[in-house]
């Protein structure tokens, strides 16, 4: 089976070459060591990860439990009366559904899906950008969208993307989407990236947010054997990105992880205001500070 991110499952590889998954997994590791392919959870993809962007129908069915947990945790970062920007994406759409309960909120967005999720929220004001509709993800892009964001200033930007690495930051596969996301970042005092573990370590064509501009990453708990995601989390932490890890009850391996389980790390990015505490985001304990290091040692 070829997945939406371009990866071929180990089961399918084993079927094609008529051998066991154990043998395929060993061979895939050897090929990865030679730089001939990149491993993904349960599969493999050609190196570099510069794959064609999936459309909304495909994305909406990927990592749904993880996206729900991430949205639950991210919503706790938003306070009554704030003005924020929310970018396009299936994870940000999940966040918007939870923001409908925050009174006095102003949400600026280029996403029709985000606007739709907030359309009937009586206490939330929604401001749409201008621009040209990009049908694959129901987002407004182009010069009209970017110009409508000029002079705007809000407290936080919530963005998703196609990939996230410590070296390059958040990236996406579409040039027009990347350009609008960069305009959203310029409007915000803090940048919060929402990315499930499958995007960690994946690099795509167009950079949207360099690592030094990311205030906080909200992600889910990587599977125990996902060394790539754990390594990337540690590298992001080393560069000062605050990490919040949300559990998903349906995650691979069947481990039950509380939704507020997190890994607070070094302080806010230089030049950014400190994040205000949201629900369930209190002062970190000593055990919590070691969370990402624990993930890395698995």
TrEMBL record:
It comes from the Bacteria. SMART domains: DeoRC, HTH_DEOR. Residues 286-298 have a biased composition (Basic and acidic residues). InterPro entries: Carb_Metab_HTH_regulators, DeoR-like_C, DeoR_HTH, NagB/RpiA_transferase-like, WH-like_DNA-bd_sf, WH_DNA-bd_sf. Residues 247-298 are annotated as: Disordered. Residues 1-46 form the HTH deoR-type domain. SUPFAM superfamilies: NagB/RpiA/CoA transferase-like (SSF100950), Winged helix' DNA-binding domain (SSF46785). Pfam families: DeoRC, HTH_DeoR. One of its GO terms (molecular function) is DNA-binding transcription factor activity. The keyword Transcription applies. Keywords: Transcription, Transcription regulation. This is DeoR family transcriptional regulator. It comes from Streptomyces monashensis.
């Amino acid at each position: 089976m070829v997945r939406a991110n371009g990866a071929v499952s180990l089961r399918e590889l084993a079927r094609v070459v008529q051998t066991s998954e154990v043998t395929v997994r060993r061979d895939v590791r050897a090929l990865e060591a030679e730089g001939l392919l990149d491993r993904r959870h349960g599969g493999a993809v050609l190196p570099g990860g510069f794959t064609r962007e999936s459309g909304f129908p495909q994305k909406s069915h990927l990592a749904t439990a993880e996206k729900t947990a991430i949205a639950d945790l991210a919503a706790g970062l938003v306070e009554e009366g704030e003005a924020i920007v929310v970018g396009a994406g299936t994870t940000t759409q999940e966040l918007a559904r939870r923001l409908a309960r925050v009174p006095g909120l102003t949400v600026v967005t280029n996403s029709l899906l985000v606007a739709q999720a907030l359309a009937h929220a009586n206490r939330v004001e929604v401001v749409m950008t201008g621009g040209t509709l990009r049908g694959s993800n129901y987002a407004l892009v182009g010069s009209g969208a970017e110009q409508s964001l000029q002079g705007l200033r809000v407290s936080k930007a919530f963005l998703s993307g196609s990939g996230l690495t410590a070296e390059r930051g958040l990236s996406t596969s579409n040039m027009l989407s990347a350009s609008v996301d960069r305009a959203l970042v310029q409007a915000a005092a803090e940048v919060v990236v929402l990315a499930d573990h499958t995007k960690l370590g994946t690099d795509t064509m167009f950079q949207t947010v360099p690592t030094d501009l990311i205030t906080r990453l909200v992600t889910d708990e990587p599977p125990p054997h996902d060394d790539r995601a754990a390594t990337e989390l540690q590298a992001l932490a080393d560069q000062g990105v605050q990490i919040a890890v949300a559990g998903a009850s349906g995650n691979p391996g069947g481990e039950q992880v509380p939704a507020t389980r997190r890994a607070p790390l070094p302080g806010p990015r230089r030049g950014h205001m400190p994040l205000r505490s949201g629900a369930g985001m209190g002062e970190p304990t000593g055990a919590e500070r070691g969370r990402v290091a624990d993930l890395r040692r698995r």
